[in-house]
Amino acid sequence: MSRPAPCPIYTLRGAGGPLNTLHFSCHGRDTPLLYSGSGKGGIHIWNLNTRRAEKIVEGHSGNSVIWVSTLQETDTLISQGRDMQVCLWDLSEGRSEMVDSVWTGSVGFCQCSTLETSPGNYLLAFAGQQTEEIKIIELSSKTPVCTLVPDAKLGMVMCIKLWQPDSGTGPLLLAGYEDGSLLLWDVTQRSKLSQAKAHPEPVMCLTFDTKRLRGISGSSEKKLSSWMLDRQNNLQLQDCVTMVNPGVSQLCIRGDGKLLASAGWDHRVRVFGWKKLRPLAVLQYHTDMVQSVAFSDHQDPKQRLLAAGSKDQRISLWSIYNEGADTG
């Protein structure tokens, strides 16, 4: 007999709008937290012990919040809204004060990406005012680092990921574009290292495993496209995963590199083994498009969760494959 479909261990309600983005902060904390950004401009900080919102931050003038994150080892929250602002918030000692902001000029839905280059120092990458440009700045000083613009017309920047290779060279950036292309950029040299056509449609989302130098991207079609970097930093297309229904909003790899989750336009979350892209589960709970998925960063594997945020204004939390499961 096949196992029954899993159910969420609990759900969070009261976000007051469609859920666009989720971010966990559980590692090293007494109180595990989940941050969510809604289509109505609210940032909810959920206490996962009480399963209630312990704080609501309103900072984007009612505009949709499309990305939230925290700066490691600090009480700084960073959020991005459709008001073209990236805001930094001081959450220490119960505060919720906006301490700085960056104007992006971008009207798209491309989420920002941050990278800690040294303790307390961060780079921030974001889609710029011009359709194809990516801007990178030093976060605290707002000093411009570079602007990356492809030679050919690739359309709007859709998704980006800043990362630091182990080789000791400078930061690299992966970007997905409207024409379905992926580009790998050398931030220090301000140059394109390689390019691959991963999809016939716009690249809606991508995620990248920096340890295995392997990534995966999704679009409005029924396929996920996986790819890797060789030793010369060339993007090499690999396997495709064919899904039942088209459209993926977001992809997320668990921190231990064992699981991949996808947020589907068909209201479902799909879980795959990351090593072989083997389908493991289809999670059905939501009544509208799933727009965000995130794995928790709990230190104890038994406590790890998967969260999904939907257009139906609910967040579902799931506990799956945490002990000794074959997740190949």
Mean pLDDT: 93
Please report the number of helical segments: 0
Q: Architecture of the domain at 104-238, according to CATH?
A: 7 Propeller
Report the order of strands and helices. EEEEEEEEEEEEEEEEEEEEEEEEEEEE
CATH class of the domain at 104-238: Mainly Beta
Report the span from N to C terminus.
21 Å
Strand tally? 28
Helix content: under 10%
Strand content: over 45%
How does this structure look, described?
Keywords: Repeat, WD repeat. WD repeats lie at residues 283-320. This protein has no helices and 28 strands. It is an all-beta fold and 328 residues long. It has a domain at 104-238: Methylamine Dehydrogenase, Chain H. The strands form 7 sheets. A 4-stranded antiparallel β-sheet has the order 1-28-27-26, with no helix packed on it. Strands 2-3-4-5 form a 4-stranded antiparallel β-sheet, with no helix packed on it. A hairpin with an 8-residue loop joins strand 14 and strand 15 (172-177).
Pick out its properties.
328 residues, mainly beta, four-stranded antiparallel beta sheet, 0% helix
List the helices and strands and how they pair.
Layout: E1 10-12, E2 19-25, E3 33-38, E4 42-47, E5 52-58, E6 65-70, E7 76-81, E8 85-90, E9 97-103, E10 113-118, E11 121-127, E12 134-138, E13 144-148, E14 157-163, E15 172-177, E16 181-186, E17 191-197, E18 205-209, E19 214-218, E20 223-229, E21 235-242, E22 248-253, E23 259-264, E24 268-273, E25 278-284, E26 290-295, E27 306-310, E28 315-318
Antiparallel strand pairs: 1-28, 2-3, 3-4, 4-5, 6-7, 7-8, 8-9, 10-11, 11-12, 12-13, 14-15, 15-16, 16-17, 18-19, 19-20, 20-21, 22-23, 23-24, 24-25, 26-27, 27-28
WD repeats: 283-320
InterPro entries: WD40/YVTN_repeat-like_dom_sf, WD40_repeat_dom_sf, WD40_rpt
Keywords: Repeat, WD repeat
